[in-house]
Each structure stands twice: as C-alpha cells, then as structure tokens.
Amino acid sequence: MIKGRAWKYGDDVNTDVIFPGRYTYSRMEPAEIAKHALEDLDPRFAKEVKPGDVIVAGRNFGCGSSREQAATCLVAAGVGAVIAVSFARIFFRNAINNGLLVLEIPEAVAAIQYGDEVELDPEAGTLRHKGREYRFPPLPPIVLEILRDGGLIPHLRKKLAEEG
Asked: What is the pLDDT of residues 100-117, one digit of tens each?
C-alpha cells in the first residue's frame, strides 16, 4: 500500500527536467541524486517530497534521453509511484528496473490535483482518491516481485542467492 501527496505536472515531462543532464556523468550517492530530482521543473520538489508521495502527470512522462538517473533520483527521493496518462517506453522500463512503480491511469490523472492525498494498492489494482476508487489491471507477479525487491538487479541477486 502506498499513501502520499500528489505532485502534479503536465505532458512531456522529459528526463532532462526529471534529472538534469548537467549531473549525468557525476558520481553521486543516492542521497545526492535525490537532491536534484525535478529541480529544473519544480525547485520545491526535492526539498519537500516525502516518502510515499506520488507524481501525477500527463502524456509521455519520461520522454527524452534514456538516462537511468531519471528513475533512480525519484526512487532515492522516496517517490512511491508515478501515475501518468502515458509513459515514454524507455523510461517505463528503467522505472521498473530501478524499483519505481509506474501506472497509466488516465481517469485518475484527470481528477487528481496538486497536493491531494492518494492511496495505491498495486496488488489489488486500485487507486483511491477523495472517496473514489480507480481500477487498473493488477501488475504481473514478476513485476511486483521486482518492485518489492527494489529493482531488477536486487531481484536477480536475491534469486541467485536462493538458488545457492
């Protein structure tokens, strides 16, 4: 279960504003990466985001370059999920690989406003907002496992350790 406040943005939020390109080749620990999340789009975000908060956006979230830091900075900042009308294909895959829940729920995007409280249950396929429930197809078990394990690499390490 994910509960948090909504941070609402529009269409075509690209990877350059999710994680500014000027930091792409800098070595940073997760806490430092988190400080730069969305700084060129919303300077308040990295300072005010709380664990479990949810980004809500329009069409084509994560368009632009394929930089993984666009997903990892949101994970490091504690973002519980990104809900959008649609995602850029590469960002979508990078998000899952890095343990970030991404969901396409257009009806919810239309209703949710900045600062609203939302509650997500990825296993049940439900999002609750202001007394209304939005349904989405439950995620495949393998995707839920990858997300629970913190991303694809931790998931594979766990599987290898289990196999001994």
From this structure: 999 999 999 999 999 999
